[in-house]
């Protein structure tokens, strides 16, 4: 697949729209302006890549809406070189933005078909997350903790304790919480046992799959 001038033009318009919708982080906007979202879309939907909408990918999942990706990434507030855990690799679009921001990405996907497809895409694109696993994001990645940042890209019915426990002191977890609709929450670990909680707006995500409903 190519990244043409037409794609670049559409991307510039999308970035302008994200600014108008309130995204302010220049590093986030700059990286998103350079990432070819059409590489991450299902082949039949490539022409919609620069619409600000979520679209279906394999296994009944979605590639998140660019605004949502920008919003969550802005809230995550990453610094160069940090260790970031992502739950829900999906299409890999969010992963590629984190990599573009210069962090070390550890990512977990629950659907094997997506895991395999996206692993192949990363290798074709020369993108290198530190670690990419097929597994259950509820558990986090105990072999690699603690993390500076954790981002969950599916709607969680409640906040998984294991994720809070895998944060460094000062680390942040950005997670949409709720059943039908989700509220965007950001937890900051202030000590071994305490967390600050901030609430942001409402969003709609595909659900974070629990063990019993997953396809493992
Ligand atoms: N970041 C992705 C968003 C994909 S949608 C993107 O930009 O495309 C959410 C993803 O979370 C889906 O791929 C879904 O399969 C995955 N997921 C759902 N439950 C999960 C779990 N328990 N652990 C890991 N991934 C999960």
Notes on the protein architecture:
The protein is an alpha/beta fold and 216 residues long. The protein has a domain at 65-203: Rossmann fold. It has 6 helices and 9 strands, in the order ααββαβαβαββαβββ. The chain has helices at 5-20, 26-34, 66-76, 93-100, 112-125, 161-165, and strands spanning 55-56, 62-63, 83-87, 104-109, 131-134, 147-152, 167-177, 182-189, 195-203. It has a 7-stranded mixed beta sheet with strand order 5-4-3-6-7-8-9. Helix 1 (5-20) runs antiparallel to helix 2. The site of S-adenosyl-L-homocysteine has 23 residues, from strand 2, helix 4 and strand 4.
Share of residues in helices: 25-40%
Q: CA-to-CA gap between the ends? A: 32 Å
Question: Beta-strand level of the residues, as a percent range?
Answer: 15-25%
Poorly predicted tracts of residues: 212-216
Q: By CATH's scheme, which homologous superfamily of the domain at 65-203 applies?
A: Vaccinia Virus protein VP39
Radius of gyration: 16 Å
Identify every distinct bound molecule in the structure, by name, code or SMILES: S-adenosyl-L-homocysteine
Q: What does the overall shape look like?
A: globular
**N to C succession of SSEs:** HHEEHEHEHEEHEEE
Which architecture of the domain at 65-203 per CATH?
Answer: 3-Layer(aba) Sandwich
Q: Can you tell me the CATH topology of the domain at 65-203?
A: Rossmann fold
| CATH C-level label of the domain at 65-203 | Alpha Beta
What's the mean pLDDT score? Answer: 96
Tally of helical segments: 6
Structural class: alpha/beta
Number of strands: 9
Biggest sheet layout:
7 strands, mixed
Strands side by side in the biggest sheet: 5-4-3-6-7-8-9
